Amino acid sequence: MMKKKLLNTALVSILTIGLAFTSCNSAHELMEPQMVACNQPKFMNKMALDGIQKSGFNATSSNKAGGNARNFMSSLNNFLNFKYANMLGVLPQVLTNDLLYGFIDEWYGTRYRLGGNSKNGIDCSAFVQRLYERVFNMSIFRTAAEQFSLCNAIWNKDDLQEGDLVFFHIKTKRISHVGIYLVNNFFVHSSCSNGVMISNLKDSYWQKYFAGAGRVPKGKLNAISSACSM
Which of 154, 156, 155, 162 is nearest to 131 (CA)? Predict the structure, then answer.
């Protein structure tokens, strides 16, 4: 019995040590809140699904030209609205930026890679940069610190709007992480632990390291000045 207990203790110790050395930043990663589930909405019941199918969301509609193709895209956007509204705790009609949520859905779950800028791995500031280019047609700086310096400061979290940037200083005094605000205290970002995901500003972890928020000046295009990431 004593030998068995010693063996179990040794196995637990080995697994713990192994886990600590498998991440890009193990202390940061292990403390981060887990990813918001990205699956079929809980209230996506048969009635809601029937409504989507009637409006054209089915396998054959994508093969039809003209109006049916438009119906398919409209139904796909409706589906994404249901999906992300459930995740963000709002009504589907609140989410009006189809391009934004289509982009998020395309990248959701992409792993984090420091200095990365592709589907093979992307870091936080590169994800923000890509999203702004695609969704808002704006070219912004590459690093989190530069993006912070670009923004007009938002002092009250209640004033945050979709597309605003939220910044964090994780275990450092400098700006080390950035995400894009969505709605209802949620933001999307490329996290070290889970890659592209949606998190809540009210989580104790993000509250602890929150550094501020800002709004990119409308119509102001900025040259990409660095290939380094925060």
Answer: 162
Q: Are 145 and 152 in contact (CB under 8 A)?
A: no
Q: Which of 99, 128, 96 is nearest to 196 (CA)?
A: 128
Under 8 Å between Cβ of 166 and 181? yes
Residue of 28, 151, 189, 192 marked active site: 189
pLDDT digits (tens, 9 = 90+) for 132-187: 999 999 999 999 999 999 999 999 999 999 999 999 999 999 999 999 999 999 99
| Banded model confidence at residue 75, pLDDT cuts 50, 70, 90 | confident
**What was the pLDDT predicted at 29?**
52
To the query of whether residue 124 is one of the catalytic residues in this protein, the response is yes
189 is known as an active-site residue: yes
What domains appear along the chain, each with residue ranges and CATH number?
28-36+104-215 (3.90.1720.10), 46-97 (no CATH)
Q: What is the strand order of the sheet 210-215 is part of?
A: 152-154, 210-215, 165-168, 177-181, 186-191, 195-200
Q: Which residue out of 124, 151, 192, 228 is catalytically annotated?
A: 124
